[in-house]
Each structure stands twice: as structure tokens, then as C-alpha cells.
Amino acid sequence: MNHIARSVILGITIFFSAQAAFAEIGECNNLPAAVTAAEPQMAGCLPPQSPLQPPCDRAQLDVKQFFNIEAILPAAEPGQIYYEGKIRARGAPAGTRRFVFLYGEGQVLEQYYTDDHYQTFCIL
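RE: above sequence
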């Protein structure tokens, strides 16, 4: 399936194929210990409950819906939702590290990680 993404730059709408962008997403290698420790916590936070409880709350992972505006990841199918979680120590700034998990059918379908605030992703 070929996904089409749209970008508006300086009032000019540009349509392009997003297929090539996410076809290049590789496996994650040599992740920091804090990231590998937080990965199962993130999976345990889905689907998010209200109010969020630790470690899903704002103090640690801050789990919320991710809209894939950058169109780097494959488009979510109907009934699927992307969620993001910020990776940080309790009370510390989030920085640029994020998990993005695709959730649907009552389970995590795909797991991604970015250490540069959505510029690039790898598959967990």
C-alpha cells in the first residue's frame, strides 16, 4: 500500500509518498539502559487509563496520543492509535527521547524509538 503524506511549507501544499520514508526504519541497536528498562513500562501503560498512574503519568513517561504528523511512520489503520511516551527520570526534563507504540486490537502492534524528537525512528 502506498501512503501519501501532505506537507504545507510557506503556504505551498506538497504531496509526497511516505512509503519510502518508513521503509528505511531499521532495528534499534545498543540502546541506553534507561531506554531498555522503560520499554516494558511503556507497553504496560497501553491503553492509557484516566487518570494516568505511575509510571504512565506526566512525572515519568507522560503517555499520550501521537498523531504521526511527520508521516515518517506507517499510517495507522482504522481502529489503531499511535501513543508516545517520553523517556526520563522522575521529575527530570524529557529531552528528545520517545517511544511511539502502535496500539490496536487490544495489544501493542508495533514499537518504535526515537532519540532525536521524531526526526528518525528505529524498531524495538
